[in-house]
Automatic annotation (TrEMBL):
Keywords: Membrane, Transmembrane, Transmembrane helix. InterPro entries: FtsL/DivIC. Residues 1-61 are annotated as: Disordered. It comes from Paractinoplanes globisporus. It holds the Pfam family DivIC. This is Septum formation initiator family protein. The chain crosses the membrane at residues 64-84. Residues 1-26 have a biased composition (Low complexity).
Length: 185
């Protein structure tokens, strides 16, 4: 008797072109000429006609296999290994950006100073600055210098000048008198 090996789904074996595999099982003769096939050890048998098959629960697979655990550990180690260089890189990037901003500000200051230098090379600008800042006059010119009057601001506003604050010891003595007047002694 020849039987083909079946897959767990009940399908026949997949065949490759050019090869056919047929498995024969040994049959034993039993009295009265009938043959009976015996299942091979450690082999599943199909329950034919013996009633409903008994279902057994397959063991549930673990949530994390050993490979998954090792893979997670490797990823965590890589993440920890890359955090310090990444932090250094980001700090350097911010430092570069700050230095570039400082460089732009310095270039602007240099351009302003160069403009000022060009002004100071003009003799008329030097004369105007001398008259304004140092009160220089040309020979033959009359000088009129106006000084601010500190009392003029108070009289022009129409308000009375503020009374001078009391001296500190007058304030202290008045507070002692007020405390003495309030006490029932």
């Amino acid at each position: 008797m020849t039987t083909q090996r079946r897959t767990p789904s009940g399908q026949g074996p997949s065949r490759r072109p050019g090869s056919s595999r047929v498995r024969t099982t040994s049959a034993t003769r039993v009295a009265a000429g009938r043959t009976r096939s015996r299942p091979a050890p450690n082999r599943r048998t199909v329950n034919v006609g013996g009633g409903p098959a008994k279902r057994t629960d397959a063991p549930r697979p673990r949530a994390l296999t050993g490979r998954a655990t090792v893979l997670i550990v490797v990823f965590v180690a890589l993440a920890l290994a890359y955090t310090y260089p990444l932090r250094v890189y980001l700090a350097q990037e911010s430092q570069i950006a700050q230095l570039e901003a400082d460089q732009v500000a310095q270039r602007k200051a240099i351009a302003d100073k160069q403009q000022q230098l060009l002004k100071w090379q003009d003799p008329e600008y030097v004369r105007a600055q001398a008259r304004e800042r140092l009160n220089y006059v040309r020979p033959g010119d009359k000088t009129l210098l106006v000084l601010p009057n500190p009392n003029a601001t108070a009289s022009t506003t129409g308000d009375q000048p503020a009374a001078a604050p009391d001296r500190w010891y007058d304030t202290l003595w008045n507070s002692v008198r007020a405390a003495d007047a309030e006490s029932p002694n």
